[in-house]
Please model this.
Amino acid sequence: MEVVLVRWPAERTRRELLVRDEIPRLLLVEDGLPPAPDDCLEDWVRVPAADSDMAARIDGLKMRLGLHGREAADLDENGVLRFSGRWVALPPVEARLMSALLDRQGAVVSREALARSGWPDGAPGRNALDVHVLRLRRRIDGIGLAIRTVRSRGYLLETEVHRQQASGA
Amino acid sequence: MEVVLVRWPAERTRRELLVRDEIPRLLLVEDGLPPAPDDCLEDWVRVPAADSDMAARIDGLKMRLGLHGREAADLDENGVLRFSGRWVALPPVEARLMSALLDRQGAVVSREALARSGWPDGAPGRNALDVHVLRLRRRIDGIGLAIRTVRSRGYLLETEVHRQQASGA
DNA sequence: ATGACAGGTTCACGGCCAGGAAACAGTCAG
DNA sequence: CTGACTGTTTCCTGGCCGTGAACCTGTCAT
Model:
């Protein structure tokens, strides 16, 4: 996702929209003071500003986006899954599974719920789900997504930046 | 909590410590470019800067701290424990122990009360609790939580920020 | 002090079971 | 036919949980 540049206070209403949509933005403050931020996805500079400074602020926003924003992976009706500029095509069953995971992104989806999504009219054998999760995992590994197991509870989808463990300091 | 002013790059190592302890900081950039931020609790200005601008940035940091501070440790019904943007899945027994600790967050929970929470119908051997506390400790260490012992009284849950207040100075 | 002791920490082990993984076979489209 | 998709069987890894035991460290009585 891109960082949007907004002139302030000239484009005040535009900023409102970006806040509502949780889109990261850099305010170019032309006069007066910047507004109190409503979220973590906003920063500001006084213009004119050095290019390097603006770039640094934009990088900072992208970093925060990784930490907070729900940079949603997107699955279209043809089973093409896009994330962070890359994509893979998913076969029907796996596409339905992924769709269920995306619906509750970040939250745990039970095996039962997954099975219902994957096979709306009757699930096959018990292990079919395991195997499909395995294959789905391998497929999406290359585009920065991962399916984590929550033992005896279900699975949850995780994006690359939103790792589960801290770096061992 | 106060926002700490750090000269950059002169006080580089000081910044490291603040990052580790998750203390909000404003970098006073004297030369070159600011570092890539490691979290949401950092901002920067080029010095010299107008007082009003610095105040605006400090207010922004406090705002973000508020957003994060509200983010208390949270344990969902599937045993997923979330804190400061990270998460771990807890197995059943440890999830119940953590739940008891969270109920009285910050206060001491006796070993007996913990045992009752962990094993509602009859506790196993005495040592089971110790072992589970140990394993729980290791698990939550990675997401910025810690269980502290109060000898012959019980245990209490502590966040990284909390620890700072306790040991600070 | 010294030694016994209680409270805590940590490790190693075994049983149990959920989930992971490989290998194979059937179906269908190009 | 070939290759992609799907489902099944089968085996095995690894997580969870309790136990026993070693060890460490304050505390207390002598």
Notes: The interface with chain A takes residues 20, 33-34, 36-37, 39-40, 43-44, 46, 52-53, 56, 59-60, 63-64, 67, 76, 78-80, 85-89, 91-92, 142-144 of chain B (CB under 8 Å). Residues 147 and 157 of chain B are 5 Å apart (CA to CA). Helices of chain B lie at 12-20, 51-69, 92-103, 111-118, 126-141, 160-167.
